Amino acid sequence: MAYDSYLQERIDRVLIEKKINFSSKKMMGGLCYMLNDKMLMGIVKEQVMARIGPSAYPEAINKSGVHEMNFTGRSMKGYVFLDLEAVDLDEDLEYWIQLCLDFNPEAKSSKKKTKS
Length: 116
Known about the structure:
Layout lengths: L4 H13 L5 E5 L2 E6 L2 E7 L2 E5 L5 H4 L5 E3 L10 E4 L7 H14 L13
Antiparallel strand pairs: 1-2, 2-3, 3-4, 4-6, 5-6
Helix pairs in contact: 1-3
């Protein structure tokens, strides 16, 4: 299993309840959630990858079950990995999803340019 499908169901439910017009697609060995052509968050195996932005990062990184996102040997600013303990309760998952939603308007789009 590339990612936790139960975690996917929980995230989908929260986004649908909030009436968020999101999309999801398989990528990076997991599942990526997109909003406004920007990565909102994702699931990699049994961890949530949260794009919370640089201003929320210093407080977030000190919470239990939160780790820096590091794929290449360099920390990615504004992104964190959340272990299952950090999102075990629905209210905890909703907190992290809201942080991602709050940052999304400020996030840069990764929209690909089309060839002419």
